[in-house]
Design brief:
heterodimer; A: 242 residues; alpha/beta; Rossmann fold; seven-stranded mixed beta sheet; 7 helices; globular; B: 124 residues; alpha+beta; N-terminal domain of TfIIb; four-stranded antiparallel beta sheet; 5 helices; 33% helix; 20% strand; Trm112-like (chain B); Trm112 (chain B); Trm112p-like protein (chain B); protein heterodimerization activity (chain B)
Chain lengths: 242, 124
């Protein structure tokens, strides 16, 4: 039986909320690709920052529902309308997550620290002028400032803070976000990475990255790391072509 | 908003020290059944601030929880306790109401079950 994910016809919508698009599909594909590992991972708390339409968190719940019982799902969005739309999408699929309207995970940072076993984030990654970042409504779903990194760079330390020892983190990025640099920043916090999905569309080149804590102290030398990143990127592309 | 989330949230206004737990003002409470999962409850028990849960449950009209957190033996053997814990943590929903910061009295609204914890510019 194929895994169930959220059905587009059941995803609620609103003109101020980002609809499921190539990036959302690529992220859900990454979760599907990693499904067996996720089941084995046996998470207790899963969370999405920036849940938008609710398509991704609903898909994650459906993916794990029958295999991993007793998981607590949390979803946040800075747009109150998106939070409501996510609730409607969850309800339409008959699944449950706790949705909170907050900036990134601001109100959860004290008490949820070190508790999240799976974090998924499809951040506002589109390079835009800085003043567009943090605007209300649908712009908050895409406006990413310089290199599309302004919000991503705020999210990374929060994710590091919230993840449990065994926590996994899936992140949507564009090549224009300089993903090698993101991986290097995460490496400095003690995380290893893997490219789970790569997808080129007409407009953008998407990478879905997965991070996990890795005690192995690899070289933090920037040059070495950057060449490692390009090697793993090319070998990933090589495998894709086969 | 369920109490499992209430137990994880604090007031994030800049400079506020006494930021937890948020006091609940309930206008509408609903209940939804959730599958009983003892393993999950045992995992969560360690993370829960007991008094905040008890007070939260009371403000939602549920008074069965003991004042003091039971010891871990009760978690293994006492199913009636686990059932109460389960109900308070996962089945009660604050559908409409407010969350009040214990230090500043700032109110955060809860509409259609979603707490709005966004801050004003001068609070960040």
């Amino acid at each position: 039986m194929p895994s169930r994910i959220a059905e587009i016809r059941l995803v609620s919508s609103h003109r101020e909320v980002y609809e499921p698009c190539d990036d959302s599909f690529a992220l859900v594909d990454a979760l599907l690709t990693d499904r067996t590992n996720l089941i084995e991972h046996n998470p207790k708390i899963c969370m999405e920052i920036g849940c938008g339409s609710g398509y991704v968190i609903t898909s994650l719940i459906l993916l794990l529902k029958n295999e991993v019982p007793g998981v607590h799902y949390l979803a946040t969005d800075t747009n109150p309308i998106a939070a409501r739309v996510t609730n409607e999408t969850l309800e339409a699929h008959g699944v449950e997550a706790d949705v909170i309207c907050t900036d990134i995970a601001s109100c959860l940072e004290n008490r949820l620290a070190g508790s999240v076993d799976v974090m998924v984030v499809n951040p506002p990654y589109v390079p835009t002028p800085e003043y567009e970042v943090g605007m209300e409504g649908i712009a908050s779903a895409w406006a990413g400032g310089e290199n599309g990194r302004t919000v991503i760079d705020k999210i990374l330390p929060v994710v590091d803070h919230l993840l449990s020892e065994k926590g996994w983190f899936y992140l949507v990025t564009l090549t224009s976000n300089l993903p090698a640099e993101i991986c290097l920043m995460m490496r400095k916090k003690g995380y290893a990475f893997r490219i789970v999905v790569q997808r080129s569309t007409d407009e953008e080149n998407l990478l879905i990255l997965k991070f996990w804590r890795d005690k192995d102290e690899e070289s933090l030398d920037k040059e070495v790391f950057m060449s490692q990143f390009s090697r793993s990127f090319s070998s990933f592309m090589e495998n894709q072509r086969r | 908003m369920r109490l499992i989330v209430h137990n994880m949230m604090s007031c994030n206004i800049k400079g506020v020290v006494n930021n937890f737990p948020l006091r609940i003002e309930a206008e509408k409470v609903i209940e939804k059944e959730v599958d009983f999962n003892p393993d999950f409850l045992r995992h969560m028990f360690a993370k829960i601030e007991w008094k905040a849960l008890v007070d939260g449950a009371r403000s939602l009209g549920y008074t069965e929880l003991p004042d003091h957190a039971p010891d871990t033996a009760a978690l293994e053997s006492d199913e009636s306790f686990l059932r109460q814990f389960h109900h308070a943590l996962l089945e009660l929903h604050l559908e409409e109401g407010s969350l009040v910061c214990p230090e500043t009295g700032r109110k955060f609204s809860v509409n259609k079950g979603i707490p709005n914890m966004l801050l004003h510019e001068d609070e960040v």
